[in-house]
UniProtKB/TrEMBL annotation:
GO terms for cellular component: outer membrane-bounded periplasmic space. GO terms for biological process: cytochrome complex assembly. It is found in: Cell envelope. InterPro entries: Periplasmic_diS_OxRdtase_DsbE, Redoxin, Thioredoxin-like_sf, Thioredoxin_CS, Thioredoxin_domain, Thioredoxin_ResA/DsbE_sf. Signal peptide: none annotated. Residues 56-198 form the Thioredoxin domain. The chain crosses the membrane at residues 26-46. This is DsbE family thiol:disulfide interchange protein. It comes from Parvularcula marina. Belongs to the thioredoxin family. DsbE subfamily. PANTHER family: THIOL:DISULFIDE INTERCHANGE PROTEIN DSBE. The keyword NADP does not apply. CDD domains: TlpA_like_DsbE (cd03010).
Length: 204
């Protein structure tokens, strides 16, 4: 009788089948490990105070801006126009739900005319941004569009809305991430604005 020898019959003796099991376990462990790493970063991000994010640009000149005009809203502004006065620069977008939350306060700040308020419509079309301001009101002294987000990247913005306090020399003095609230405006940001304005006034 002829014994037909099959290659698979020799695998257990050679230990080749046994090598496949560790490889399969490794292929399962790698995705699990990557998931755990991503989850840890996500938890870390959620634990940060989103309203007091650090900025490498604090006390440094505001980046050069090249903003597009928006229909019916005049010419966009440049970084040079921010100099010589204390200003607020607010980042918003028609697609941004949180921007709607702070908008009534921005309208109040704009109406009080205590500090010039400039707006940048971020990752949006000029038309949509203009329509959004026409619907909810325009609190800004000047507004420009940054459709591709190239200008905003220089500010280190991570999400809208964000607000920057700029001093008379065009330097960024404070960064607030997230919607402004009346309490934060009255107790924190407005006093900072008034203090910077006072420094520029001659003593009587």
């Amino acid at each position: 009788m002829v014994n037909h020898f099959r290659r698979d019959d020799a695998l257990p003796a050679l230990g080749l089948h046994g090598r496949k099991a560790p490889m399969k376990r490794l292929l399962l462990i790698i995705p699990l490990g990557l998931f755990v790493i991503v989850a840890l970063f996500a938890v870390r991000g959620l634990s940060l105070d989103q309203q007091n994010l650090p900025s490498v640009l604090i006390d440094k000149p505001a980046p050069d801006l090249e903003l597009a005009d928006m229909p019916g809203l005049g010419n966009a502004f440049t970084t040079e126009e921010l100099k010589g006065q204390v200003t607020l620069v607010n980042i918003f977008g028609s697609w941004c739900p949180s921007c709607r939350l702070e908008h009534s306060l921005l309208m109040q700040i704009g109406a009080e005319d205590e500090v010039p308020l400039y707006g940048i419509n971020w990752i949006d079309t000029p038309e949509r941004g203009a329509d959004w301001l026409a619907q909810w009101g325009n609190p800004y002294d000047k507004v420009g569009n940054d459709a591709a987000g190239r200008n905003i990247i220089q500010f280190g913005v991570t999400a809208a809305p964000e607000t920057f306090l700029i001093d008379q020399e065009g330097r960024i003095r404070y960064r607030h991430a997230g919607p402004l609230t009346p309490d934060f405006w009255e107790k924190t940001l407005r006093p900072m604005v008034l203090e910077l304005q006072k420094r520029d006034r001659p003593e009587s």
